[in-house]
Structures
1.
Amino acid sequence: MSHLKWKVMGMLLFVFCFLLGLQNTAQASQLNFTTTRISGVRQIDTAIQVSQAGWQHADTVLLANCDNFPDALVAAPLSHELDAPILLTQKQGVDPYVMDEIKRLGAKQAILLGGTAALSAQVETDLENAGISKPDRIWGQDQYETAQKVAERVGSKGQVILVSGEQFPDALSISAYAGKTETPILLTKANTMPEATKEELAAFQQKGDTHTIVVGGEAVVSSSTLTGLPDVQRIAGQDRYETAAEVYDFAQDDLTAPKTYVVTGENFPDALAAGALAAKESAELIMTQKDALPGAAYSVLSKADESSNSAVIIGGTAVISDQVKGMLEGTIPPPSLLAGMKIVVDPGHGGPDTGAIGPSGTYEKNNTLAVGLDLASVLRSAGAQVIMTRSTDVSPAVGQYSELSDLQARTKIANDDNADLFICIHNDSFSNPSSNGTTTYYSSASSAAGQSKTLADNIQSELVKEIGLYDRGVKDAPFYVIKNTKMPAVLIEVGFISNPTEEKLLGSPDFQQKTAQGIYKGILKYKGF
């Protein structure tokens, strides 16, 4: 479709709708892990079971409060450095079963994480009465200062990790990586960096450790708190589960064991001890809901399944259900990824409107219809309800054809059916035959502009990866269909039909199928999978 034509009309075409799903799972293949479960009646007992699974002997143990998590969030690097399991106990004293585990390990030293508000003086007395030399205590006035003290004990490792000290999930998701690499973890508030954290970051920078890994999005660690940090890498998703999946991807080169630990994202204690064990075994860690694997977790595990064949569930069925176990094993199929989604697929042009014509005489309308049909098939296989604006070489316009009536008809179909996404497919064209590449458009004038922009970003990135054409980026344009639809909508210019090389690709069935897969993957990514 020529750019001149778009400009003359002051509008033009079509919108792309998007989806739900599971990234890199065009086939929505089931997982195939061998699973085991480590659990106890209480979180204290689960931590003991984790210790028994990973340590036959330990000179040192780390003790943390079983009911109050912040002090223990940063313990994994110290655990790895000392080869010490993390055990949990009540504030008022050492649990008898925990004491039995300390004796089994033959520990001669205990390090308490937190002040007496977290672990009382009685904990020290209990340990001394059991023959443990006077316990060491790492603590500060709050969790931020305690994290600083632990970081000082771990020492300089070339980088530092910064996470929220107000919410636990992000620190847990990075715990295995932090432990394995012995990278200190510091805590911050969402919009204000505590003085203790500032001081320790400054100390690390003086030693040349300028690389800071921030885990979590703007809502938990805002960019305003990072002012002055010279080298920041943020790992974040739309929620805790997607962030954990992003960490999983990030850590794969360092955590190479064919095993994954599966922990709850709904509460912290079981996962605290598991992070230390995962670090010890160089294993990855992923986060789940109680009754279902989140899409982001399922997606990353579907890729990991090629190299990782074992999944260890941490916690009993009250924490992580047998439903999740079955999904990991493949005995319970994944839910229809796009169930409940209504998606309009809009192949551009059709009928009397050929669209742009390539140098060898090919028609844009034929290319867009082929991609649209392939995309509809993929979406339906994932459980979506798909509405095609056209499925043959016709225009959806009612009555006498005009370009405006055609565009209005496409928009009306989507709006009348209250679709969730609108996906418009086109080929680009320009007077210069060397013009090339892929572009995805959204309209800032639409009522769903923000969501449309996010959808466009995700589709563009995944489509370019899949088909390999030049990335022309995401652009804002007031094209009629994406401006006037009420749902998130995009218009995709797959490639330039006016470019002889891309014209051949655009007419190739294999390339058309790849285009559909790339769009599908972008939709899945948009939906958090």
2.
Amino acid sequence: MKKRDTFYITILFILPILFVLCVSTYSMYGSKLDWLSQHISLADYFRQTQQLLPDSFANLQGQTNAFSFSYYGLLRPDVLVSYLFPNIPIHFFIIGYVTLLWSSTGGLCYCWLRNKGYKDSISFFSSICCICANCFFQSHQQIMFIEILPFLFLSFILIDKNKRQWISLCVVMALFHNYFYTPGMILILLLYDYDQNHMIKDILISILIGIGMATILWLPTGYLILNNHKSVVQTNLFNLLIPNFTLKGLVYDSYGCGLTVISWIALFQGIQFKKTRKLSILLILMFVFPMFSYILNGTLYARTKILVLCLPLVLMILSYWLQERKLNKSLLVLASLFLCTKTTLLGLLISLVFIGYYFMDKKECLMMYALVPMIVFTGFNYNQCLDLKLYNSMYSKDKQKLMQRNDLNQRTADLDQVGYSVNRIYDPKEMKASSYTSTSNSLYNTFIYDIIKSPISQSNRTIITDSENYLYLSMMGIQNVLSKDSNLYGYKEVDSKGKYKLLKNKNVFPMVYFTSDTMSESEFDKLFYPYNLDTIYNRTIVNGETSNDYASKMKLIKNLDQSIVIQNKRKKKNNTH
């Protein structure tokens, strides 16, 4: 390797670290909801359990299958390494590892392009476009979206060097980091091998070996998902054939490749070359027609974020065009017609200036344009990181001490910042009914939100948050409540620390009990709200027939001016509704 190559790789490795330091000034390199409530909280909980592959997690979702949370790093290297250092805060491992993978992506991109014969300046330019792509916005959001990329680049290098036998390890690591994107990654690998070498037989064997090696994770997780009967948004197949000219899957948007408009122009310019023509046309179609996103997403939905897997192929075509230095003006005009929106017009004008100078043999402008993706990325990410005050409230020492010094016989609810604390466990003896995972139990979700009508406090109903709903608190055996407010029906304050209070109510359902007061599921399904509420509270619903009947005590009040007398041990008052 030449000294110039070493210098470029060093710059590419350091640049993401500088980005992290720059955009997270006076904050933490993370985000509010998913990063804080899932990626950090769950990784910390995995470490607390000190089990490599547990059968279930007793502390979340009223005790549930452990593989409901496998998507969030159950066997990921950074999480496993953190087991060895329990006194170091988990966010150091999460932030450090995602930054390492981000830096590695730039270096691997450069090595891959240089190995294909592209000039060092062009390979460095394309690698800058890679690590400054707005998809790396996800490095402090949904980290698994981009943690798969270095293994994709490494697989391309192994294909080019004819060392396909090692691709099985890349597939294993991809599955451990993001099993949902791995099928799409496999399709991209097959496409690349066929486009470059007109063969897929040899790589298929390595891929199958890799899939087999990772069955320890994906097999129980897949079984859980298949048996969960989770519904997804219904997709109109006709709409998949309607072109979408917003180009969100490629240009600027952080839920796609997030490249600048020069990448779109490069795809059209690639049509003029025999070597890149077929791949260029295919990629253009992939970014325009939702059908391709639908296929890569395993026919679940047509979201464009899966197209981040096309990032290396786009950069390869960009590098080829810049090296060949041939400009087809007709294709340039055609590409420009797609870039007339407010978002892309300025980018188009800057790209046209760059193209004009570059094809006038002024190669130095290549590095000048590299500033564009750097500025765009910094602008998109500045002030987007996690407020330290919010993080500190979730990892409050006061909350932790309250949990540690009190006897928590049954489940505990945390009513402080319920959307963020949903997966936060402060002490191993703390058991919660809440949870937030994309693979949550659909029947449990239906029970919480559709039957006992616990309020949906977040826009995403897969987040099962704690609430003041007494039916939820009582039926889930939540005897302990952590809150800033001591005024909660049925609960009394027993301890406090700082601004937090621990409340208790022993008159809730036990976590395990025997009863003969049952009702058949078929009879219960005939009831409707609100008559099913007191029924499920007073009867256990079972499969099969039962002779035990129950008549709801709920009464319909037709006269809204009717006075209702409510008797209480302490006082008696009249309420008018």
